[in-house]
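Input record (one chain):
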Amino acid sequence: MQLIEYYQRGIKDNSRCLGAFVFYWGNKQERTHTWFSLFSEDGEKNSRYDAVYYHWQGKWPENRSPDIQKASLNYKNYQESVYLDKGLSYKAEFEAMDPDGDSLEISWEVLEEGNYRAIYGGDKEKKPLKIDGIEASLEGSTLHFHAPSKSGAYRLFIYARDGKGSFGSANLPFYVQETDLLVNVRED
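The corresponding structure, as predicted from the sequence alone:
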């Protein structure tokens, strides 16, 4: 888990660091509703909560949270620019795992990307609108879906829930562009 690795390397094993604190205890919409949050909007805990628990208690919580790893959209990860043509079919692939071996319920949603130009870090943000009516099917660890019909910036969220009060999430930003199919006609 990255949070534990960062804590070990940057804080615990650093003789010049005096300590650390939890940035935000709760659920907060800041760029996304999962970025800084230790809990879902419904109060489910995630792996960041587990990491804090581990460092405070010296052991893992009784039920550890699922995690989603290696998520990709159109064969690209969250660090790459993903452009989709409106209305066309694409796939998102992911690896969801639970350290306790719990069975997982997978769900997803597409939200509009927020407008952050006039917002400063820490300011209250409104959660972007969910895009309803997207045709999709989930097959194991692959989500087949049609891109929204309106061009613009969006974000795909994938959730894994263990049914015991814990969840994991991943999100993939993408941009839907106008579809201009050009046909090359060659005259001889």
